């Protein structure tokens, strides 16, 4: 690819913002561990989980829909794993399979309702969010009388699962590998396959897509299932690593994932976006979050910095893009 | 006044009594989950009907509206937590004026009594935090992190305030670390980022903070050198206390806050009986290596 | 109304007469309220444009059915992308696609600097030419064109008309909607005139002269008066 | 207006949903106080505050932008009133004026950043949300060492303010009158004035609006200021009524307001919507929320019902609209 | 390039020649990279379309600049709504507006059932007619039309051309962009030919014949060959 084409990439801005944030924290918090290996590992671990959610969320948003239910899908999936293993005595892998099946059903239901009724997905998935969150709380308390379930390490197959979902490679979490792999896969699907082409069309001009014979509804349903399965995967990471789960796991992750996607240049109105951008958005978010802690800002003022750094990052992002657009002409 | 109102409410005791509970913490919160278990058990034991309501977030306006709705349903008794007396005053006075007997639990105390509450069952969060701080100080902790998973929630803020005050008194210092209760990964990484070499103690406000704290210490190879203590119990917390990873856990015995409030309200509405005390303290009690194993079973059942 | 293979049916009518609506019914966008649609003599009911495409009916809509933010190449092949490799490694064959598009556009007299530029950067006429090239490329049996020449210059319009005739030669049926009775008469075999949603009759080329066609479209005498006025002023 | 025109109104669906929800709760919770005057007053009080937020939020959404910062604007405004009166000893009215000035500045800043930088308002106002929320916590704790401030009743002018902002008319809250008045005003502005026309154009076709000489940026900035001022007004209600405030007041209100607007038929992508619809959306939300409490559903399962009723209401809403659209033809 | 009062300047050019871009520069949508813009002899720099409008330059864009979800009446008056009452009670005068629109559309030979229907329900031609009616109604001194007749039938196109001439009679300068050299030659006073973003020369009506114009637009001999082919087939 020529230099001009690289300049035209939508991710350029967010990459610049990531570099700027890194430099900022390297200067302000460099001596308190931000630059160490374990410091780097700490924000990468946050970015990895968020990034795994943000990739399918970006695809869904490019196709013009939202999924607000991924946070509570995480809670429901994690609790399914925990309950199946501790209460029913299933091996861990069976629990994970059950959770994945549940997540797939949730995604299917979301997609089905959205495409059939043409209701805004914002509302439909908000409804699913409530139903799943409430269902998780109600079921868990009914069965265990508590809101936390632990003791997963006694389940069969925990050892292998731990290596796969919660292992460490040096100081780095294995989720990093998952993140890289899934980002590469999602990027490939988006820019190099037919379904990827359709995703852009479905979000950019739904009527045109329909007239050209693209199975708009099927594309959307599959994307809703993908976001739900990604939520289940992240829930699996957390449940295995922390050997248990609670009913509030994942609350608010949906907004973080949307934020990461938008930071990475995905349009809220659909039709444009990139998976690599979403990954960079997740990295930026994780770096800012951890960087503030490293720089020792008082908890009371934490959010002020988060907000300010966010706005500055996006400003930098957009000004770089504008420069690039001018250079292109 | 008390006797009169009692006789007024005993009259319709032939109908199945209905009590309403409104607190500032949802049953999805592990702490309040135990409170609710106490309530449900007492409802079964006493043969009364109890409903439990709480706002979606720490929201005093929403909470006062919930009390209003419950008062409009005319329950035989009302059990409330009163974290912000001035915000809830109007609703509580409305309950009093409607002749509904009120018991405050968890938070409230003297302020709630001024607004007509018959009795308070619970502990002072500040005092409990302070007791925790004193005990940590005794263990030799001087530089501590107070992990707050709900900044802005007055109960949690008071716990950290008491803890830090106690630590300061012995010349130590501490820092409040705000974390996200719903994401253990984020919480763990944040604790690790705040874990500078001089830190020798971590005080968490509940299980959402303590598991990530332990995982972080394990990963940083400082498990054992950094002392960990926490509020509130769970089977995992107790196992960690038993194994010596957690120095102690502060227990409010909040099950009693739920259980006793329903029992006492039932006795009061049926027979006009009421303990001759203004407040029944339920905590703080400390769970340590010595007694941890004994309460694990209770914790598994959601009683502690 | 009928279209046979190897013939061009022109549909003419006033603004708002229902031409675009008729097209959308034919191509499966809207289900018809009444009336039947016969393909090869058997009645069909398209539940989606995909059905119509599968029957070999390709359409250029008046609003072109383009995705503004996608590139020229991707728009051209949208819904019928060429792929290579086998699943799960099946991927777009972008190089081949680009060559096809470049060739097709060149045949229409249009050369683009950058095939990966988004369609939204094209001029109105370039966009229309792209849509037509796409339909012709994919138009297997019936080609439906809604005002294909309206945004085109004389040269491109001429090229499009030549294409339409080429399609007929290849045995394709063409439904051409146009406001330009000159264009229509030049290439059409039969002419259907629509007015306020009703069919006003179908004529073969032998039955109707160009002037008659112009007059009918313009609402009879009114036009003559107008042309008179225009000359006079 | 003819019957056909009434059927064509976008609010028809949400009105039907409100009626259905009322009937549902009248049947399931009628005997437990839902139908009493005080029961009605209790959901109307919730609906009134939400509705006052939802009206300007709907206008802003019609113009194609979001404001996620209204929740923390509420917290900041309320705390400004409380700190000015209790710490600085100002009379209550001066405190309210200061809060309004603050809110206007927040709105101005939001609007200015969004229109100047062309950044998505979702991100910009999320940044403002963090900054304001953190700033409120930090400042309050710095000054008072606590997160709650009470004792407003001792401030000068409290009596009149209480009549105006927190009075009762029989069992009903005076905020109801404010709601009705502001909804009427916003409706009038939207459908009967030039700026109203511009709001639709700005959201429906921004390029066209710009080309026709509509001051797109000014319209947006004013709308951002309106949402912020509405947040300040609601904060004033709450602060005066509850004689104090805390730093978390208003958290999540931004999403409830957007939800109310969307329930009332406002498009997330801008260009279409109605203030009356948003008011009905707020009423529906309040009614459902309180109705579930009245029907005595266990709080473990509360969210399940909330989600289910939401989805059902929107389904009814859209099916009524479809019928109406068919009848129109 | 100059436009005087009371004259019609036609701009002709191939697809993608830069006609629409030129128009957008003239009307203040894009600032020009180079070159100057003179109004009444003094150089101006429009920073927004509002400035251009204030100078009395009204434009019909090729993509019409309509808000699809707003009603016909509201689109017509968008940005220049008639009001009555005094602030703060100043409100839209919808009744008067509706009458004006009805009258203007009637003059163009278009009658709509429902003036409060959204513009998105109109046909392509009706929409274009509305945009033209709007520009003519508000076009104080210079009227800029980008392909006004392309989506119109013979009758409506005739009406539009008559309007354009009427505007000239009223002392208005008109810039007309069209692909139809017949239309152009019928009404234009001077002709500018654009090609690939450059001006290829301006001619008065006396200097250039219709056939010459057609040929130039189509790229010289190529067209003749084409017409020949079309005839032949
Ligand atoms: N002077 C110029 N220099 C460089 N590029 C130009 C110039 N004018 C126009 N362009 C580019 O040419 C492309 C098409 O321009 P435009 O839309 O103005 O064509 P047009 O003449 O209106 O064509 P049509 O008749 O098909 O509508 C645009 O991408 C534009 O950026
Ligand atoms: N058969 C019909 N019966 C009733 N209404 C119709 C019918 N056909 C079309 N209409 C209506 O007429 C309006 C314009 O139709 P359409 O867009 O098809 O016009 P058109 O002939 O394509 O005009 P143009 O040449 O200007 O593009 C639409 O609102 C459509 O709903
Ligand atoms: Mg048409
Ligand atoms: Mg053009």
Question: How would you sum up this structure, described in words?
Answer:
The complex is a heteropentamer, with two copies of chain A (329 residues), one copy of chain B (304 residues) and two copies of chain C (233 residues). Chain A has 329 residues and is mainly α. In chain A, 74% of the residues lie in helices and 3% in strands. Chain A has helices at 3-8, 12-29, 37-62, 70-86, 92-117, 121-144, 158-166, 175-192, 194-204, 206-211, 216-241, 253-263, 275-294, 302-328; strands at residues 148-150, 168-169, 172-173, 244-246. Chain A has a two-stranded antiparallel ribbon with strand order 1-4. In chain A, a hairpin with a 2-residue loop joins β2 (168-169) and β3 (172-173). In chain A, α7 crosses α11 (216-241) and α13 (275-294) runs antiparallel to α14. The model of chain A has no long low-confidence stretch (mean pLDDT 90). Chain B contains twelve helices and twelve strands. In chain B, α2 links the parallel β1 (18-22) and β2. Chain B is of the alpha/beta class. With 233 residues, chain C is of the alpha/beta class. Chains in contact: A-B, A-C, A-D, B-D, C-E, D-E. Chain D binds chain E through residues 188, 192-194, 196-198, 200-201, 204-205, 207-215, 271-272, and chain E through 27, 29, 48-50, 53-54, 59, 61, 64-70, 74, 77-81, 83, 90-92, 94. The complex binds adenosine-5'-triphosphate (2 copies) and magnesium ion (2 copies). One adenosine-5'-triphosphate (ATP) sits between chains E (13, 15-21, 62, 197) and C (121, 123-126, 151). Chains A, D: It comes from Polyangium jinanense. Chains A, D: InterPro entries: ABC_transp_permease (IPR001851).
